[in-house]
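Q: What does the assembly look like in three dimensions?
Context provided by user:
Components: two
Sequences:
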Amino acid sequence: MNDVPIYLDNNATTACDPAVVSAMLPFFTEQFGNPSSMHSFGNKVGFALKEARAKVQALLGAEHDSEIVFTSCGTESDSTAILSALRAQPERNQIITTAVEHPAILTLCEYLEKEGYAITRLGVDKRGRLDMNEYKAALGPRTAIVSAMWANNESGTIFPVEQMAELAHAAGAQFHTDAVQAVGKIAIDLKKTKIDMVSLSGHKLHAPKGVGVLYLRRGTRYRPLLRGGHQERGRRAGTENAASIVGLGVACEQALQHMVYENTEVKRLRDKLEAGILAAVPRCFPTGDVMNRLPNTSNIAFEFIEGEAILLLLNKAGIAASSGSACTSGSLEPSHVMRAMGIPYTAAHGTTRFSLSRYNTEAEMDRVIAAVPPIIAQLRKLSPYWGEIGPTEHPEEAFAPAYA
Amino acid sequence: MWDYSEKVREHFFNPRNAGLLDGANGIGDVGSIKCGDALRLMLKVDPDSEKIVDASFQTFGCGSAIASSSALTEIVKGMTLDEALKVSNQDIADYLDGLPPEKMHCSVMGREALQAAVANYRGEAWKDDHEEGALICKCFAIDAVLIEEVVRANSLTTVEQVAHFTKAGGGCASCHEGIEEILARVSKEACTAPTAATKPLPPATPAAAPKLTNFQRIRKIEETVEAIRPMLQRDHGDIEIVEIDGKNIYVNLKGACVGCMMEAATLNGIQTKLVEALGEFVRLLPAAMLGKAH
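A: Here is the predicted structure of the complete assembly.
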């Protein structure tokens, strides 16, 4: 039964598409030229980059191909965007972001707070949704940039970024979105929005690790993070990671071709998986805004047990998933996303994320649906919050340990 | 993924003594709110011999928490209560062939559950004696609360001092930014008013102290340690000098000092006293390091 492992951790990273790999290979061998060179070795590579840029442009719906700036990863794009907005608008010192952003944004903001910038972190409700009135009230003449993720990596919840960008513009602020999880999973048409900057990461959509993009709307005031060469029109110095950029181009082309499949078939499989687990396991619930989330993501909180233990047993059954529990991250706190949504500790520690891709199959879902219930039951047997057949009468009272 | 030993994996996949224990007469419920782990340890103690005849556990926690609980029950079965109380968190970790530094708190939780269960059997109240903070130094598993306490108690101002007192930052050095932040925070609190340098800095080369003879030096070390012993004994601990080899002084910590979370801080505190008394730099090391340090 456990012959082939099932990969359901595509929000962490994805497998490189075989077409991506084969498109990249020549750029490690005969196509080794530096695109900046004047000879034919470089020229061909330069042409390949141009082609890749057009493919990224198409997936994002950008108006101009020059709005695509290749970077090394999503984190670099995030840092570039926020630091650029602060440097380009020194008269503004406030950053508005959300409590559920990726650490690439949150850790940078914590650091900038120490440097004296004012950081506003918008909270979310139980389903992970923002309060737009709170957001409107936070915007002001000192707001340099608003950075809100397009879709949440843990719950898949989608934020109304188009609307938020309009509001930011009305306040004279720039708008950035970390769309690392959204690109390739939901349709995006940037030219119809007021979004100034977008981060994306190659390895989340079947391209290799180590390549990312900063979308930079034409006319947005900008200061580069890396200065040096003229690459990317002086906006991101450093010799281009040609092979990976070519790979990313192919991956974007494929993502566009599979956009309908992602939002029908992948979504159907995700819904089947989630419904199957919820029906078979007592005391568990999906987290986030389930009616408005990525088509590939299901984050289920299993009460009274802990996520790392779930993952270890899933792994033993040949199933790869991830968890918002503290112990999987090496930090002591459970996921900041789950805490921001007010999920109780006894459930937050047991959250398990299943994230699919177009490579997953119906048969795999059946296997996971069969494998999960006994794993949960096995761990609940060990849990002091759990009785013979269900949670103890008043779990919080029946077991109230002396906490350190 | 965590680098768990085979033994940890084995105890997680096949936990020993899991579930409720019929006739348990000593129960310890402890948890770590930050980490979210919680453990109920159940002991069946024979009232005549005070021997633990059976033990079981229930754990809400990660793989290493479950493995630590399983190991703990195996270790204490057959021990008398007094023997069981000597089991340290390091004993639990050793039994499992080690735990990753981020997971050492799982073994600490096991030891606390044991103390709580024994206290419960004896009708005493058990109080947790330490608070757990975010892990700063991954090399030596030192958390923010411990570093802050030691910084405060000893008015430390540099990363080097923190490394001497707690070992934190003494390994790969990648946590120095975190340590500097703690130092900055504590020094900000301590500073109530803008003042000029209150104490002149000691000269770069200290005035040469009169050189002690070997005999005088050993006597001085002994006197210094003797003066500290009553403090340790008050906490049911003790210390003995085993060997003096140049700058290295080897000691045994005894009683409650063994396996105490503050063990490193205790040693470093005594070391500071010795350095002051002797007017030279010496290192205080556990006797287990004899022949290993140079």
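Follow-up: The longest helix of chain A spans residues 259-280.
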